[in-house]
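Request: How about a record?
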Amino acid sequence: MNPKVLIRLTVYFATITLLTALIGWTAHTSWQRTGELHDQLSTRQWQNFQIADRLENGILGLNNLVLRYAAYQDPADWTNFNEKSSELRKWLIDPEPIVLSPGELEFLKRINSTYVEYLATARTIHDKLSTSRQTVAQVEEFGTLEKCSQRILSLGLQLSGAHQQTIDFLQEQSLRSLDTMRYEMLGSLAALLMAVFWLAAVVYREMIAPLQVQLVESRLLVERQEKLASLGMLAAGVAHEIRNPLTAIKAWLYLQQKHLTKGTPEYGDAELIGCEISRLERIVKDFLQFARPSEPEFTVVPAEQPLREVQTLMQPGLEKSAIKVEIGAVVPEHIRVDTQQIKQVLINLVQNAADSIGQNGTVTLTARHDEKRLNQHLSEVVILEVTDTGKGIPPEIEKRLFDPFFTTKDFGTGLGLPIAARIVEKNQGVLQYQTQAEHGTTFGIILPQHKT
């Protein structure tokens, strides 16, 4: 696997793992926070009930004790009053475990202040009843005591209301916190889904799609090789059977031409027969080359060398058609090939490009570096390209471009590109092309780069 793809997949897997952990942590935190808020709200509500109930029961109980003492003059009632008032006083000073806000503490201070006045009034009533021997009706402080107790109870209700406001605020804050955590979880989940989709797209693009393309190419290559093998065997047999009679016919024609006078119709017919025999010999030669291409003799050469040699060879013959053969961008890399065979392929491609142009055009020869899948492996390659300014290859012809014996030329054998493809394969490369209607065609000979 390509190291870059492996690094990218590792990063994606790590991202998905982190997002999954983040979602788990958010869910755990949300659950924990929800439990804490539920406990806090329950505690606050219970405390709210405690404040009002404790204060009301305490003050009413103290009032009853004062009235009992005034009615029966029983010292035990006053002792009980002192104990109960001290407990209530202690609770008002430090109302644990109740947690109060600053506003609630302010109410509690006012209750304490009124409670001090309440206790002082109760002691005054005690002193007058115990020392002055006044009657209950004569003690004016009972009205003051009643007013103090009413103020304390009123402040207690206000404290309870303030405590309820704190609960409402806490509940609202809790809801906002839960909304935030819910949005965080949804955002993390969306990010996780995007990362999974992204990973799936990368896996498909970097691994599955190339395998599909490779599978299709391999199947086409196998089909082509099977077709070439069967046709090659047929071509070898036919060529072998035809070559010997052609040689004999050509020899007898040469002997007969010696007895003919130049310029006569008979001599012209003999020349025509000779041209047709030569064409048949060329076809037989193509058959044999297609059936049994010679093994390459590898040498290491600069990538631009065969391009410049083909330019020098082809340019003079194409000048009459106003077609220029130019060298474009080249790279300094080297290739290990049979130079004669690669030149033969380049000549065939340049001639096809010239035929596509017809008149007034340019054939550009370039060599560039790239990274492509070659022989089942991703490799650094050098691509020798032949680009023309012709009309491109029509789709109906493109489908049969590499089929043996398929040709659009009047005198072609249809073996030029199949032979070129087999030669390139023998040189451990691949022949590919790109074409666009009315914009020309580029054939590329993809060869492994030779590293010195």
Q: What stands out?
A: Strands lie at 299-302, 323-327, 334-337, 361-374, 377-388, 430-436, 440-450. Residues 296-450 form a domain with the Heat Shock Protein 90 fold (CATH 3.30.565.10). The chain has a mean pLDDT of 78.
